[in-house]
Structure formats: C-alpha cells, structure tokens
Amino acid sequence: MSDSSTLRSSPTRTHRSSRLSTIGSEANDKKRSIRGRRSSMSVKEVIDGVEITKDVIIGDDISKVNEKNSSLLSIKMAAIEEEEKHLMNYIKKLQNEKEEWDKMLQNYEKSVISQNQKLKAEIVTAELNYENKDELLAQKAECDAVLFQIENWAAKHGFSERLTVI
C-alpha cells in the first residue's frame, strides 16, 4: 500500500509545485516591472516556418520609447528636409549645366554647318578648276601637236636649219 500512496501523492505534489513556481515567477515579473528592471520580454513567433524571437516593450517604457521616437522623428524629418534642399540645389546645378551644354552644342552645330557650307563651296570651286585644267590641258595638247607639226614641216622643208642659224 505504501506504493499506491506514493503514487497518489506524487502527481499532486508535482502539480502543486509547478503551479507554485508559475505563481512565483509571475510575482517576480511583477516585482521586476515595478522596479523598472523588466522593460521588455522576448516573444517567439513562427513566420513561414521560421521561428523569430522579438523583444516586446512592456508598460511605462512604451511611453519612454514613444517620446524617444518622437524626438528622433523630428531629427529625421530635419535631416530629410536638409537632404531635400541639397538635392534641389543639385538638380538646379545640373539643369544649369545642361543649359550650358545645350548652348555649346547649338554653337558647335552652327559652326559645323558653316564649315560644311564652306567646304562644299571649296569643292565646287575645285571641281570647276579641275574641269578648267582639263580644258587647258586639252588646249595645250592641241597647241603642242600643232607646234610639233610645224617643226616637222619646217624640218622637212629645211627651215629648221635656217632658223637655228638666225
């Protein structure tokens, strides 16, 4: 019988002791929270099969975090506004540079068009000169041929010997 009494008393003791330890830990948590030591607790969460542990803020500390976040928010907003001003100035600078480049390109384009027209005029002049040279060379060739015929006729009739003496 002593075995059965031990078996009966054993589950009761275990149940009572686990219940007491839970109550004890809750009391300790409350004490820590009151003293300010316990400001957050870890919570496990499963997302897409992955267990993630997060720290959750408890009690009055939430207002402290909110105050801190609000001051951080104003600092962040000021930084964002400053960055916005910087970016706007940079955009203006880039737009001015773009306008300068556009003007330079327009001037370059005008210069290139002008040079192109001059080169076309020079090409036309060169082509005319080339045609004139061909005509002049053809006339010279005709003159040379006539002179050659005259020299041959003069040599044939003996005039070349008389001309050399004179």
From TrEMBL:
Biased composition (Low complexity): 1-12
Keywords attached to this entry: Coiled coil
Coiled-coil spans in chain: 77-136
The protein's name in its UniProt record: IF rod domain-containing protein
Chain intervals for the UniProt region annotation (Disordered): 1-40
